[in-house]
Amino acid sequence: MKLTIERDALLGPLAHVQSVVERRNTIPVLANVLIRAETGKLSLTATDMDMDIVETVEAEVGAKGAVTAPAHTVYDIVRKLPEGGQVELARQGEGERMAIKSGRSSFALSTLPVEEFPALSGDKLPHEFSLPASELRALIDRTRFAISTEETRYYLNGIFLHGTKNSDVPVLRAVATDGHRLARVEMPLPDGASGMPGVIVPRKAVNELRKLIDESTEAVTVSLSDSKIRFAFGAIVLTSKLIDGTFPDYERVIPTGNDKLLEVDCKGFAAAVDRVATISTEKSRAVKLAIQPGLMTVSANSPDSGNATEEIEVGYTAGPIEIGFNARYLLDITEQIEGEHAQFAMADAASPTLVRDVSDASALYVLMPMRV
Amino acid sequence: MAAADEAERMLPRQNPDLAGQEQAERVLLDAYRSGRLPHAWLISGPRGIGKATLAYRFARFVLSETSGGAGGGPGGGLFGAPLPPESMAVAATSPIFRKVAAGSHPDLFIVERRYDEKAGRLKTEIVVPDVQGLGNFLHLTPAEGGWRVVVVDSADDMNRHAANAILKLIEEPPKRSLILLVSHAPGGLLPTIRSRCRKLVLKPLDETTLSELLARHRPELDVDERRVLARLAEGSIGRALDLSDAGGVELYRELIELLGSLPRLNAGDVHALADRLGRRGQEQAFTTLAELLTWWLSRALAASAAGKAPADVIEGDGGLALRLMAGRSGTQRSGGAGLDRWLDLWDKLTRLIVRAEGANLDRKQVILNAMLGLEAAARH
Questions:
Q1: Which chain B residue shows the shortest CA-CA distance from A205?
Q2: pLDDT at position B69, please?
Q3: How far apart are CA A245 and CA A239, in angstroms?
Q4: Are B21 and B29 in contact (CB under 8 A)?
Q5: Which of A234, A283, A312, A329 is most buried (most C-beta within 10 Å)?
Q6: Quick check: pTM over 0.90?
Q7: Which of B299, B297, B271 is nearest to B353 (CA)?
Q8: Hey, is the C-beta of A294 within 8 angstroms of any chain B C-beta?
């Protein structure tokens, strides 16, 4: 293997793929990046065995071939090379070393056999559709805060992605929940997605994907089977295992008959909750909402630090109600609401409350109250 | 020499050969072919007879079956169902073999003692962080769409917390997952783990198999030395190789020669031996000698209790045992007070050696101590 590439063209892809490499590894080859030179292009692969990222970039290839070298070291070297220079990567001898040369610097890194490098990608997945990166970002952003971190309920450790119908319109839906709150976001079902199995995308893959599509404006091609999912956009392909479990029947916990409707100015409400929550105890983070027609009093009480109240004007006409919530959860939800007004639909102080953006019907959130 | 070095360093997951365990292999293969493979297996037997090698062999087989390798994969073929697999062998050059050997197969999870960077050696036990990734592994879909295999080598190394963590997963294993526990002493495992596993007991290798294996892995040894090693190792190729590398045969000869003069030991020889093994860099030789001494003693005890001499490993060691344990008169019936004394000594020595390694006792003093104990026991 031998190739030449501009330092700047190499650095970006290296930065992308090396982020999936764990700092501490008990399996030596997982610390490495697989560098493969093909006609006119170079592909970089890194993996943690649960997911892998492959990025392809154009390069002047002198000799085809592949090698694996320590990912973080290669990245650090390339990062420190002067901007605008040319970098030469070459396999030395029988492949025991990989040489990196640029200007007057040269490095020789130890390598491991390519055959030991685990492969996740490669096979064809039966379902495929594409959607704009911005839509995918919206699906992820508005659900991932609710992903559970509890290992015993592993089937909640990801975003449940599936096709379904909402009042006869086919939609692609993303759902996440940790048992205290639930986020459900949908978009019109893309072509080719009908018939796809419902899959749970693990948190780590979600976070890695979100980082990678942050700047992307292109379409993302999603392909999946019932055991793998792949996202391809631009030069990057991310493949991940899925969570092997059944997502609970979430429809059951979304209340339909809540008749106490409250409308608040979202930003003002969030700011008030944030201020008042300063007082609430670190552990429970509870705030109380006392609501009567036209007026809501947000309060918090802590035996250690004192108490706080703030009044805000709200749109409310039903009977007075007092209800408590975890302030962190309230803020997580209001952060995702882009419209000016948020609507809370409540039943009583012990039943799940439905929250939604008044100007956007695609997302809804369910929140369990706290006893205060 | 290079070949010997390689063989010495070969881990069970890198070893393509398994000898003398055809019967156990058949049990696993039959279970697999029956379509109702138990999800957890406890593979037990003495150290160094191929338990882990068998576990990895089975792991490779199951993994290659799902990726359509060895047996043509699941599902019917064009001309009827494919023939059921007859052997577990997976070629050492296949991608699956290479990945399993490197520990980098995405559908294989290996639980073993980890390297402790601070102490600069392997940890003494398997701790909770070592098994933490396991839940995540079993709760994700398999990369190849087939089986997920876990090898625990060895289950005896798990501390209580790690064992409890793994127990949860053995209790409720996901579909198409296979957990292979290797154990040298299954009696020490949690009964709750034992009761949830299908048991597979491996037998020690017979002397012929062991000699053949030694001939392959240590071709430089002569026939006589191989025979002694095979007897010393009692059916364990692992132990035979360890002994061979540590100069065990030489040490054993030296030991028996030394003990031959009991009840009176040659003080000069004893001190020379203790001095030599007490030196820096002789840790391995010390451990080997200690092992051989307690092994000889326990074997002598067992045989004497039955009233006969143990079979000779080298010229005269069996007779020596009988002479000593039968008492000074040589006519007195064995058993009773005489054997008790030797049993106490064995017990004392075993504990002394464990302490010597744990607390870094002066090795020279430990040897002198042991020899004095032998003298005292023999003089009665």
A1: B140
A2: 45
A3: 18
A4: no
A5: A329
A6: no
A7: B297
A8: no
Of the candidates B52, B111, B56, B110, the one whose C-alpha atom is nearest the C-alpha of residue B88 is: B56
Residues of B in contact with A49 (CB under 8 A): 104, 106, 143
Summarize pLDDT for B240-274 with one digit per residue, the tens: 988 888 888 888 988 988 888 877 888 888 999 99
Chain A residues closer than 8 Å to B114 by CB: 26
Nearest to B24 by CA among B63, B51, B47, B48: B51
**A210 phi-psi bin (left φ>0, alpha ψ -120 to 50, beta other):** alpha
Residues of A in contact with B142 (CB under 8 A): 227, 241, 244
Residues from chain B that touch A247, judged by Cβ atoms under 8 A, are: none
Each residue's pLDDT tens digit, A313-357:
999 999 999 999 999 999 999 999 999 999 999 999 999 999 999
User: Which residues of chain B have a CB within 8 Å of the CB of A27?
Assistant: 102-104
In this complex, do B141 and A28 lie within 8 Å of one another by their Cβ atoms?
A: no
Note whether B313 and B252 are within 8 A (CB).
yes
Class of domain B3-201: alpha beta
**How far A56 CA lies from chain B's nearest CA (Å)?**
22
Residues of chain B found within 8 Å of residue A32, distances taken between Cβ atoms: none
Model confidence pLDDT, tens digit, residues A217-248: 889 999 999 889 999 998 999 999 999 999 99
Preferred mutation among A23, A45, A116, A117 to probe B, highest tally of B CBs within 10 A: A116
Task: Report which DSSP code applies to B77.
Answer: B
How many CB atoms within 10 Å of residue B17?
13
d(CA A200, CA A176): 9
- Return the top range by mean pLDDT from A31-45, B88-102, B117-131, B280-294: A31-45
DSSP state of B203: P
State yes or no: pLDDT of B73 exceeds 60. Answer: no
Residue A116 pLDDT: 93
CB count in 10 Å sphere of residue B58: 26
Check residue A61 and give its pLDDT. Answer: 95
**Alpha helix stretches (DSSP H) within chain A:** 7-18, 71-80, 133-144, 203-212, 266-277, 327-336
Helices H, strands E: what count in chain A? Answer: 6, 26
A:B CB pairs within 8 Å: 71
Q: How far is CA A17 from CA A22, A41, A71, B135, in A?
A: 11, 16, 9, 25
Query: Alpha helices of B16-123 — where are they, by DSSP H?
Result: 22-33, 51-66, 95-102
Task: Indicate yes or no: CB of B104 within 8 angstroms of CB of A29.
Answer: yes
Contact with chain B for residue A28, Cβ under 8 A: yes
Q: How far is B137 from chain A (nearest CA, A)?
A: 8
pLDDT at A12 over 80: yes
Give chain A's domains with CATH numbers. 2-116 (3.10.150.10), 127-252 (3.10.150.10), 254-367 (3.10.150.10)
Q: Residues of B with CB below 8 A from A112's CB?
A: 102
Which candidate from B101, B104, B142 shows the least CB-CB separation from A118? B104
Say whether B143 and A49 touch across the interface (CB within 8 A): yes
Chain A: residue whose CA lies nearest to B112: A26
